[in-house]
Design goal:
three-stranded mixed β-sheet; Porin; about 15% helix; 60s Ribosomal Protein L30, Chain: A; about 475 residues
Length: about 475
């Protein structure tokens, strides 16, 4: 039995010794105990020595021993503690009921090794409950009650304990176990309780460190912005965009520019609007001509609303008629008002939009030109010609959109200068008469040509009579 005890204890010590070489986990000064180099425990211990062998001794009446115990731990790492114990058990014997009890005590001293479960591998180092197992090699010294002889003994206590954290590096300790007797001792169960605390602050565990290598900042794209601060480390960019590019230089970085290679506007996410109509070119069917959104960016196809598209409309900003190619034509004769000498009266284009003078009217004017008579050698109109001039005035009122040239002519009798003067005076007399009949003077122009424009032969009286005339020529205003 005792060989087994020794073997078990040896294995426990071997296991703990191997743990000494284990990798040291990080330490925390908030653990229950065992974080600093040394720990100290103070408490009371009770032991039950009431074994079958002692039952035969009538003098052994009190099997429960108790006394103080002080423990000191050395903590080489977070898994193992090596320590020393010093304690005492006090008890009483009674050989005769009529005699007083004899009190005696023993002194216990031991070396221990403990394996802590709050080592960073099994439980966290700062666990509130920190269990451990231990083994001791314990010596004892006692003095016999009667003979006062010194007795030395040895035993191997093994057991377990728990530290309950009550503050940083302070714990309530409870432990218990069984002591196997080797010499001059008795097997017994023991239980203890007390306080355990670390001495000093938590110790730092040396950590293998690799010398820091100071790396030179890298600028992969060579834009003067180190990769650490460069949002686009492989593309040359600008500092204002954290190293990212603006290819077209429009002040909008490429990642936010929908048209990164074409200069554009921020309001269109970097895309252009060449015609400035507020519609980006990508959505503008007519990017070089200002237009309207509802027409896809193109101009209003019929600005004047006359039903003729601008491309076919000669007057795209003024409503007109189809017959006048989109230009105004008040009289509807197909001649635009701008080109119509008579815009309010229909007439053919060949006559500049004015009504053509009827042949009958032309004949009447020709008749009047041949039959207006003047006093001989004078510019005075004979009363017989008043009716003819009245008819001329009526014709002019019928054609108010015509002006009239009144031309005077003579035969070749007399001096040319005199004839020229006479022809001018006679034409002026005819104009004066027509003005009196209500024809605006602005419509009448008089001219004299003397004998320079004969219409017949001046060698005969009949021919000379035809050459003495006043002609009325209708003109467009």
């Amino acid at each position: 039995m005792k060989k087994g005890i020794v073997l078990f204890s040896a294995l426990l010590i071997l296991f703990s010794t191997v743990s000494l070489g284990a990798k040291k986990p990080p330490k925390s000064n908030k653990s229950a105990v065992g974080n600093s180099r040394f720990s100290l425990g103070i408490g009371m211990e009770v032991a039950d020595y009431y074994s079958p062998a002692l039952k035969k001794l009538s003098t052994f009446k009190n099997p429960i021993w108790f006394g103080p115990r002080v423990t000191a731990w050395y903590n080489p790492n977070s898994s193992v503690a090596i320590g020393l114990d010093l304690g005492s058990h006090a008890f009483a014997t009674k050989s005769d009921p009529t005699l007083p009890a004899i009190n005696t005590y023993n002194v216990l001293y031991s070396g221990l090794i403990a394996y802590k479960l709050n080592n960073g591998y099994i439980l966290k180092e700062d666990a509130a409950v920190a269990p451990y197992i231990f083994a001791k090699l314990q010596g004892s010294w006692a003095q016999t009650a009667v003979l006062k002889q010194s007795v030395n003994g040895f035993g191997i206590p093994i057991g377990a304990g728990i530290n309950f954290k009550i503050a940083n590096n302070i714990a309530l300790n409870v432990n218990g176990g069984y002591s196997f007797a080797i010499k001059n001792s008795n097997d017994h169960i023991f239980f203890g309780a007390g306080l355990m605390l670390d001495l000093g602050k938590g110790k730092a565990v040396a950590v293998d460190t690799v010398p820091a290598v100071v790396e030179k900042p890298v600028d992969t794209d060579g834009d003067g912005i180190y990769d650490l601060d460069d949002a686009c480390p492989t593309v040359t960019g600008l500092a204002q965009f954290n190293g990212c590019p603006d290819t077209d230089g429009d002040g909008i970085e490429d990642s936010k520019d929908e048209c990164p290679t074409i200069v554009g506007l921020a309001e269109f996410n970097g895309c252009p609007d060449r015609d400035g109509d507020g519609i980006p070119d990508a959505k503008d069917a007519c990017p070089d001509v200002k237009g309207i959104a509802k027409f896809g960016g193109c101009p209003d196809p019929d600005r004047d609303g006359d039903g003729i598209i601008n491309e076919k409309d000669q007057c795209p900003d003024v409503a007109g008629s189809f017959s006048a190619q989109g230009c105004p034509d008040r009289d509807g004769d197909g001649v635009t008002d701008a080109d119509d000498k008579c815009p309010d009266v229909a007439g053919p284009a060949s006559n500049k939009g004015c009504p053509e003078v009827k042949d009958e009217v032309k004949k009447r004017l020709a008749f009047a030109a041949r039959n207006i008579q003047f006093e001989t050698g004078k510019a005075t109109i004979k009363p017989v010609s008043f009716k003819i001039l009245d008819e001329v005035a009526s014709i002019l009122n019928e054609y108010p959109y015509y002006d009239v040239n009144v031309d005077g002519h003579t035969d070749n009798v007399g001096k040319p200068a005199s004839n020229l003067k006479l022809s001018q005076d006679r034409a002026a007399s005819a104009v004066e008469y027509l003005v009196k009949k209500g024809i605006p003077a602005s419509r009448l122009v008089s001219s004299g040509y003397g004998d320079t424009k004969p219409v017949a032969d001046n060698k005969t009286a009949a021919g000379r009579a035809q050459n003495r005339r006043v002609e009325f020529n209708l003109l467009f205003k």
